[in-house]
Amino acid sequence: MTNPPTSLFSMIPTVLVLLLALGFTYEADARTGRHARRASLAGPTSTTNVEDSLLSRSLHRSPDRRATSGWEYVGCVTDGGSRALTDYSGTDSSNTPDNCIATCASKGFIYAGVEYGNQCYCGNTLSNGQGVTAKESDCSSACTGNKSVKCGGAYRLSLYRKSDALTMSPMGCYADGGTRLMTGASTSSGSLSLFSCATFCSQKGFSYFGAEAGYQCFCSASAPPSAKQIADSSCGTQCASGDGTICGGNYALSVYSISGSSSSAPSSTSSSASATKSTSTSTSKSSSASSTTASPSSTPTAIGCFSDSSSNRLLTGPSRNDDSNTNARCSAWCASQGYDLSGTEYAKQCFCGSTYSTSRAIADSSCSYDCSGSSSDTCGGYNAISLYCSKPVSSSPTTSCNAACTSQVGVASVPSSGRKNLWAHHMVGNTYSYTAATWSDDISQAAAAGFDGFALNHGSSDWQFDRMADAYNVASAQGSFKLFLSIDVTAIGCTQTSDAQRFASIVLRYANSSAQATYNSKVLVSTFAGDACTFGQGSAQAGWTYLRQLIKAGGKDIYLIPAIFVDPSRFSSMTWFDGLLNWDSAWPTGSSGGQPLTTASDTTWMNALGTRSYMPSISPLFFTYYGPNSYNKDWIYRSDDWLLARRFEQLIAMRTQIDMAEMVTWNDYGESHYVGPIRADQPNSQGWVNGYPHTAWLPLINFYAQAFRTGSYPSISSDSMWLWSRPHPKAANPTAPTLSRPNYWDTTEDNLYAIVLLSSAATVTINSGANTGTWNLQAGVNKLSLASAPGAIGGKIVRSGKQVKSLDSTGQFTYTNTPQDYS
User: Fold this and answer.
1) pLDDT tens-place string over residues 761-786
2) Among 108, 111, 113, 106, which residue's Cα sits nearest to residue 125?
3) Peptide bond just before 48 cis, omega within 30 deg
4) Which residues form a coiled coil (predicted)?
5) Strand ranges (DSSP E) for 556-654?
6) For helices 462-478 and 436-448, what crossing angle results, to 10°?
7) Cα(320)–Cα(305) distance, integer angstroms
8) C-alpha–C-alpha distance, residues 742 and 158, integer Å
9) Whole-prediction pTM value?
């Protein structure tokens, strides 16, 4: 483990801005982290997908290809093992185009396809690269319900479509930029298709749309100027839906004109769904708001957008269709049925339930349909449900549901179970120049931020023991701040008997200090790694047993809670520890980390540990940029989705199951997750640390720390705002990069994030460059996001027509599309 950096700065006393030194960002669906697939095509494809080009010409009809009134025959198109129409399929001994169309129409789909005589398929878009025009003679199988009519063939669909469905006419590839070419509505999605973009823009009343970078959708009332048209080869990025079609390129728009009705065409993408839609306006290309604020009992609390399907319902209680559906109306009906959870879907559907699965959370942008009862409210989407809870808790500064909802991220119910401890991981290896005064400043700032103490991560250098002695002396004089050792066995060694003797002497050196942290009346000790430590005894079990004996011989016993990196299935056979620190639980990690952080890892570890202690970790971010000639660590973990607040809310919800948690870290500069001040001793991380202070996190940490430690949120007596952003896009091409793009860059997003604590209702505006979003928000904790754009970032809080807080990063921070490096 090396030492990482990060930075924050305070612009005005109670409005703070956090600027993360993560060299780039990447846009993806916020809730699911489903990042846009950016695979470029080598060149124009020679095949034609019906949605791309058939829609731009007249749809032909054939005498033996009859269609139900309101539907028309598209043609014979390709299909395969990965189907063209994926939303519904069935076989029917009475299959005909009319019967299949009736089935698809009843389910709300705009495409119907018959195949191989007895098969019927439905959908709203053509997927998997299928739907390419084929010879009519390929569709020659007689329908099982009428031998005189043809029903496709072997991997060939006789395809039909609603007559009033959208028609898209391609106009070419157009140059875009920081000043957007298409300035109407906009959205982004990790499942964007041309058709879903067309549907979104049509529903918003626009006649033109453009798809960009695979996952972005822009609308316009007028055609773009011809002077902006560029070579088609500039638009070579596949649509995020994976259907094989092209959705623009890097600042390049695939532009289409649209005609027809979208009334029956469910869209899988759109702008964010949230409880604040009715009171928010936005001029950004994409924005979302998540609010956990206290509200009147008639207003349900938004939990988020979740996947749903007819075969696997998220909410399994009563349901109904309602032509006057709104989220409040649905919530009230569910409450009358005895259910606190409600969900709206597909504009007019209302579902009720008592429990739900947090693992099915998806992007807010997937819940985008206007409610059937109010165009200013959002009621789910296609196979996407907007989830709400009906019971706010007025005594908390954030809205909470009852017990059925308390496990959900973002719901700030505070289970009561005594006081908890919050530690901060402190890298002693970054303290070479520390004096007692430096330690005093660190301890004072950490205590003010709600930390109970430091876990002192150290190696084998003699000077580090001198620094720890200073830390213990200062903490003892301070009185209440505690310390414990986190021995980095990757640096100190643990294979020889002499290592055990040294380890024991280190523990005993500080064990009698009044600043020593204890648990269950034992000296609290942690490690970084340790499952391979044998201390010369032949096995880890024997080695740690031997070490404990040495420490007991010195008159002390330890409570050992190391951070090890093994499969939890092995825990039951490893009896040498008293509990474990789950170091990697703080972030969605690796290539599979493209989704918001969940508590799945926590649950797995707690189940595997049984009655032994579990200590989760918490962190604001992770970015490291070392080359092979150094630490050879070059990656980023997804740090979006209001990660710090999200993780705190998770830990608060599980506080009955844990007694302590650890912040990773106070001063690990090399991995960028520091929350303390930037000091002089850095592990060659200045390139992505200097100029990026992170101490502005500390007041927000204190807010959540009080809830975690005491079981009660503090009151919000004044307004505060935190903004944080990466300095450039994830897919940026630096002018002088030190290394290639860090690993896992494509799991992140290009967003500006905000958390706003309001003492009373107010209007809040945030901006990233020219992108601006405005929300009318209630008192409490509010979470906002906005797509990043070149320029400064800023925000303001307005109440009763008067601006009460504002910030502007001009001269201090600028988001740019052309950075010098990824750092």
Assistant:
1) 999 999 999 999 888 888 888 888 88
2) 111
3) no
4) none
5) 558-560, 579-582, 613-618, 622-625, 634-637
6) 50
7) 19
8) 46
9) 0.58
